[in-house]
Structure prediction request, 129 residues.
Amino acid sequence: QFSLGGLVLGLGLAFLPGGIDALDALIGAIVGFGLLGSVAVVGKWMLKKDAMGLGDIKMMAMVGAFLGWAGVLLTVFLGALLGAVIFGPISYKTKKLVPFGIFLAAAAAITYGFGSEIIDWYLTNILHL
Prediction:
């Protein structure tokens, strides 16, 4: 419910000046939902069990409404990186799983604060654009 309310809020705030525009917010929400929804479907097909919860999918739709499609991509990348670095070694030894949403939330906060700088650095220093 929190994610759905946040999605509505993010889409509504996009009509105010100063943030991303409404089309970017809508595309971001669709990309966030579609990207993680696709991971969930493919993961369930491959693993024969749920690979991702609906909460993560709804949360990324909300994140997309606030950060746009590029913010979604950066958030998912950073979330996976954080999860692998922080919990990967522990999970390897203990075989325990941790919800991905924790890392997505941290990554969304990083993207919100520093996303433009990270994307600019990547485009300039890695892709040389």
Observations:
- The chain has a mean pLDDT of 92.
- Residues 2-126 form one domain.
